[in-house]
Design brief:
The complex is a heterodimer of chains A (164) and B (273). Chain A is built from 4 helices and 6 strands, in the order βαβαβαβαββ. By secondary structure, chain A is of the alpha/beta class. Chain A is globular, with a radius of gyration of 15 Å. By secondary structure, chain B is of the alpha/beta class. In chain B, helix 1 crosses helix 4 and helix 2 runs antiparallel to helix 3. The two termini of chain B are 14 Å apart. Classes of the chains: A alpha/beta (164), B alpha/beta (273). Chains A and B meet through helix 4 of A and helix 3 of B.
Chain lengths: 164, 273
């Protein structure tokens, strides 16, 4: 985990380990819980969040199609999560200035992965289970075990960005 | 007058849901292959390769091409000499619901846009049109919202020149940047009313991608690809695969221009009953 702080914008990286899916409504709840002093349903310190809401899991498969969703919709929530120890986020597309600054300040990383390639990315998911907010359906937080999940560093811990 | 059972419509829609979600349109595949062969930027080429591999894997594994299986938009062209026995709209909605359930697609629909509540009976967007004869043509376009969110309408003055209009269209695409999954297909509706321009822009996405294009479309494509956004916004010569423009008579006081962006996973399927 230490290693990802040293990555540079533009570099490819293959991630193996645990990541959590979370998108719009899950972010709203996480930040709401922090703001009202409630305990979070997942350990945010050191966590990696993947902006993803997969399709339902077909019979006999580990997960359904599971590509990234547009990151900028999570911009308003990301700085607070980084302040609480979130290590990295994975999504697609550009981020706000505030997110970039927070990534630099808290030494986080923003990765992008192959957008619109949700079928192909299922190959890299070895385990998937609901971790929180199951009532949100496709927006529930899932805990995923991934292997060699293909990423590109979009914003690095020094604030370097591929979108410059 | 020919009669057709509503259950037949439902069955056809279920088939269209499957076809559109698992099998990328052959014209889109060809355009992506062409872009892959022509692309010189190494990273862009690699991304285009992944997009093509994704389509092949989805087809083989019966997985959704993209996890955003969209807001299903259904176009109906109903012949004037055919009568549906039963509720046509409900038959379509039922087909969408059953198809999405059967093929494990994502139910991305909230029943109330403000409370964001979920419904057990989600509905799709249906556009009805009449035509001659006794056939019914059904077309489904499951529209992902990463790209739908980047669509725009501008009501130009009737004295606006073509350059202003072109610049607006190119700017809409440029502003979408990497967020809406380039390379895009751009649908443009010019004329009509605010609502009709929007429908034309969406319908323009259904047109088969080919080399037969209007000069305006070719010019726009060239300008858009000059922006250098490229696949995933990481640079390259392929920001868009095609630009399709539809026009319609309009009012002396106005000039509506609507731009509807599709991601590279432009999915649609049709059947005639």
């Amino acid at each position: 985990m230490k290693k990802i702080n040293t990555l540079k914008a533009g570099q490819e990286f293959f991630l193996s380990g645990t990541i959590y899916t979370a998108r719009d409504q899950a972010h709203k709840r996480l930040v709401g819980a922090i703001n009202s002093g409630k305990r979070l349903p997942i350990e945010i310190k050191g966590a990696i969040i993947y902006y993803c809401g997969p399709t339902q899991t077909p019979r006999g498969k580990i997960i359904g199609s599971c590509g990234p969703t547009t990151s900028s919709r999570m911009d308003a929530f990301t700085p607070l999560l980084l302040a609480k120890g979130l290590k990295a986020v994975i999504g697609k597309g550009a981020r706000s200035k505030e997110v970039r600054e927070a990534i630099r300040k808290y030494k986080g990383v923003y990765f992008v992965t192959y957008a619109g390639c949700g079928a192909l990315l299922t190959k890299h998911v070895k385990k998937a289970e609901v971790a929180a907010y199951g009532d949100l359906g496709p927006e529930a937080i899932l805990k995923l075990e991934v292997k060699d999940f293909p990423l590109i560093v979009a914003i690095d811990a020094n604030g370097g960005s591929i979108y410059d | 007058m020919r009669k057709i059972e509503a259950t037949k419509i439902t069955g056809a829609v279920i088939g269209l849901v499957r076809k559109a979600s698992f099998f990328l349109r052959s014209d889109v595949l060809s355009a992506l292959s062409k872009a892959y062969r022509a692309e010189k930027n190494i990273q862009a080429k690699k991304i285009l390769r992944a997009i093509l591999d994704n389509a092949a894997y989805a087809r083989k594994q019966k997985l959704a091409i993209c996890q955003d299986t969209g807001l299903p938009v259904v176009f109906v062209e109903i012949g004037q000499d055919v009568a549906v026995r039963g509720d046509l709209k409900e038959a379509i909605n039922k087909g969408v619901r059953e198809g999405y359930r059967k093929y494990h697609l994502r139910d991305s629909i909230v029943s109330d846009p403000l409370s964001r509540g979920r419904s057990k009976s989600p509905v799709c967007v249906i556009h009805m049109d009449t035509t001659g004869g006794e056939k019914i043509k059904l077309t489904i376009l499951p529209k992902g919202f990463g790209c739908e969110n980047k669509s725009q309408l501008r009501m130009f003055k009737p004295t606006a020149n073509i350059k202003e209009i072109k610049d607006f269209i190119v700017k809409v695409v440029k502003d979408a940047g990497p967020d809406a999954c380039p390379p895009y297909v751009i649908g443009v509706g010019i004329g009509g009313s605010a609502d009709y321009a929007g429908i034309m822009a969406k319908k323009a996405l259904l047109r088969k991608i080919s080399s037969r294009n209007l000069k305006l479309e070719k010019d726009l494509l060239r300008q858009i690809n000059k922006t250098g956004t490229g696949p995933m916004g990481l640079g390259g010569a392929n920001t868009a695969l095609a630009v399709h423009v539809q026009t319609y008579p309009t009012h002396i006081a106005g000039l509506p221009v609507s731009v509807n962006i599709s991601c590279h996973a432009l999915r649609s399927a049709s059947v005639t009953l």
